[in-house]
Description:
By secondary structure, the chain is of the alpha+beta class. It has helices at residues 3-9, 16-24; strands spanning 28-30, 33-34, 46-51, 54-60, 76-79. Strands 2-1-3-4-5 form a five-stranded antiparallel beta sheet. Strand 1 and strand 2 (33-34) form a beta hairpin. The chain is globular and about 30 Å long.
Amino acid sequence: MRIDKFLKVSRILKRRSLAADAATGGRVKINGRTVKPSHEVKEGDVLEIGFNSGAVKFRVLKIKETVRKEEAESLYEVLDD
Length: 81
């Protein structure tokens, strides 16, 4: 699955266009490498998203095309630095 779609499906970011803009702007990294919105994400990948207040790291646990709002957090886990 594309990184922009995963960020939207998992509800880490609210809209896919916002996720694509973040990736285009160089604020999204997968396993330490800056990626484009079309980069494929796999289970076990570590995502890092830069925000104005700092960066947040996530580990991808599952890949699903659609999930309910209540199940969205089961797709990833937040990693502490």
